Amino acid sequence: MFVDNKIENNVGILTIDRPKALNAMNPDVLWEIDQSIKKFIEDEDVGVIILTGAGEKAFIAGADIKVMQQLDRKGALDFGKLGQEITMTIEDSPKPVIAAVNGFALGGGCEISLACHIRFASENAKFAQPEVKLGLIPGWGGTQRLPRIVGKGIATELIIGGHMIDAQDAYRIGLVNKVFPLEILLEESIKFAQVILGNGPNSVAESLHCINYSAGQSLINGLDMEVESFSQLFETKETNEGLAAFVEKRKANFRP
Ligand code: CAA
Fold first, then answer.
1. Residue 116 DSSP symbol
2. CA–CA separation, 151 vs 175, rounded Å?
3. Residues within a 6 A CB radius of ligand 1
4. CA 124 to chain centre
């Protein structure tokens, strides 16, 4: 087993645990991450998911280079598609996925974090898309998601430079939302998860859906989708409760 899952107060915490390889991902690790995320998505007790790495050194040091060394073109296509599928499972999750990046997030590790809805980092975290140093390019969405998050110019610099940046630089370019001392990274991630859990679950899921949809869409298509989602919510108990709670000057109870 390379993944440890636990649920604490409606937060599903997935910890990748392959210390010998700094949590690098071979097909088994990928499969376990995929299954764990899917289980959390289905589990009614889970409202927010946190993805982190075991230990104090690495979130994920990338795709397993020793595995990749054995791949031919067909094998690389399958491995690439498997990694990409997992990034889609994460990104399409109706429950927010927070990456608590506790060390190296390199190559595929950085790409997994890019698919998460929010990235919090520890002060010792380091980010890179170092694939060009291996004669490769990012294969799990780095060329597509990184420019969407930090802009084309900075993404290009990172991808063709292949160099590492620290947590403060990652924060400066908008790659991470916040930086915390390592000792409190998970605690702070859980705190934000609890903030989200106080909000309407359908509203949160619809927000994620609309934000994801905005990538690559024309403004007009995006606005159509947004107003459709906005209006659908008016048929839900959740929205009635949220509006009524404000008018009645009480806290909304979205998870009775
Ligand atoms: N794959 C396989 N094994 C890895 C690994 C990886 N991505 N990263 C680290 N390891 C292994 C090392 O081989 C080493 O194992 P051994 O003791 O058996 O040799 C162990 O983890 C510890 O690593 P180091 O001794 O290298 O530790 P360090 O502190 O000196 O360096 C590091 C840490 C800077 C992260 C360095 O390990 C490193 O550069 N790793 C590779 C990072 C990388 O290039 N990742 C991108 C992969 S390509 C990719 O992900 C493609 C894609 O888009 C899908």
1. S
2. 10
3. 21-22, 24, 61-66, 83, 104, 106-108, 111, 130-131, 134, 136, 138-140, 142
4. 19
Q: Are strands 165-166 and 126-128 parallel, antiparallel or unpaired?
A: antiparallel
Residue position matching structure tokens 């990184």: 146
User: Which token pair is 206?
Assistant: 């619809």
Cα 134 to ligand 1 centre (Å): 11
Domain boundaries, the chain: 3-197, 201-247
Per-residue pLDDT tens over the stretch 78-92: 999 999 999 999 999
Query: What's the pTM value of the predicted model, to 2 decimals?
Result: 0.97
Which whole number is the average pLDDT over 203-232?
Answer: 95
Q: Which CATH superfamily is domain 3-197 in?
A: 2-enoyl-CoA Hydratase; Chain A, domain 1 (3.90.226.10)
CATH topology of domain 201-247: Lyase 2-enoyl-coa Hydratase; Chain  A, domain 2 (1.10.12)
Closest ligand 1 atom to Cα of 104: 35
